[in-house]
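Side project, low priority. Logging it here so it doesn't get lost.
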Amino acid sequence: MVINAPFINMAALLTFAGVPMFQVQEWSGQLSLPNSQEHIGRADAKNKQLQRVYGVAFPTKKELDDYLKMIEEAEKRDHRKLGKELELFSIHEEGPGFPFFLPKGMIIKNELIKFWREEHRIAGYVEVQTPIMLQQVSLGDK
């Protein structure tokens, strides 16, 4: 949703628990509210459910349009979307944030590792390896 908002009282719009987040009495520009979600206050189900609204504002329509175009282009290149479409990796709830590399993805990963190793060898570095899993201990304490 894009709003052309000449001289809007932002203090009346942007409040949290009745307290203005910031004070702007007059503003002329472009406002976009690209996303919203329901939110439970302080993560307690007994509290009132709030609506969280994400917004961006720019002084001119051109600046807003440029920003929205940049976001649209970035979404097209989102690694999570491309990884799935190109069959490079998949993500599973058993390991959120850990890609499960598929055959095409392993080819790319191995080529990148090969390149990295050669560059580091030329620079005089040597490779070490640590265990994949450790107990939660700060290595700096040792």
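Brief comment: Residues 1-13 have pLDDT under 50 and may be disordered.
Revisit when time allows.
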